[in-house]
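This section describes the prediction task in plain terms. A model, or a person checking by hand, is given the sequence of a single protein chain and must write out its three-dimensional structure as a string of tokens. No templates, partner chains or ligands are provided. The sample shown here is typical of the held-out split.
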Amino acid sequence: MRRLSHILAATIVASGPACAQPDISKAEVKVEQIAPGVAVLYGPGGNIGLSYGEDGNVLVDDQFAPLTSKILAAVKGVDPDPVKFVVNTHWHGDHTGGNENLGKAGAVIVAHDNVRRRMSVDQFSKRFGKTAASPKTALPVVTFSQGVTLNLNGDELQIVHVRNAHTDGDSLVYWRKAKVLHMGDTFFHKVSLPFIDLDSGGSIDGAIAAVRTALGLAAADAKIIPGHGPVATRADLDAYLAMLIDIRGKIASAKASGKSLDQIKAANPAKPYEVANGFISADAFAETVFQSLATAR
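The expected answer:
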């Protein structure tokens, strides 16, 4: 899986919410078992969580539509039962692209209210341009405002909304018994600095709050599935939180002292955390934080 995490660093640039899908004709979907009844599926899009057992299969995110057959083949290698539920951690296409195929096959799609709202209409991002509205069969049919629990496969999948983090519709999914936490794109691990989608309601303060919520959910020995990158530990998430707080603090202090965005970029507050070939550069992340603080109320 280590080599795959490096591949993700290169492909994540093509798997944003509104840009063209990567060439997946030769893409593989790899499976990693991480706890009883829980696995992770890796491919060109966001990491997929899989709950399997006596009640059927539950996917957390579903990557791109052309990958659905490969994803289902990978799931069948773990458990031959059909996919009964899909939980979307947020609306971006590298996490929801398979919704239409799976919805047509009978899966019930579950997500925050804002995921359905954004997928129902055209979206526009300064970084990625326009994303067309999704067809009806791709939309979540069960939505919630704060959270919901799925009692399946001998576990409780606790789904918790975190406000204005990566987007305005992010959810964390925690397997209480298996002690596995899927964080969607509120956590990028070893592949890039974070992407905070300001055009979709994301914010640096919400991103920090989301990680704090995650740490409140996760047991000391929990395994943590990021939106992109390899499975992490609680210590990794602690370090991620410290990074966000450090960068935010430096930019907020500089901004309060009257420094311009160009001056802040020149000081390179995110440079110590930059990932080689990462999707988000130190300059881009500094600009996102600066703009997020400018619009904070």
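For orientation: The two ends are 41 Å apart (CA to CA).
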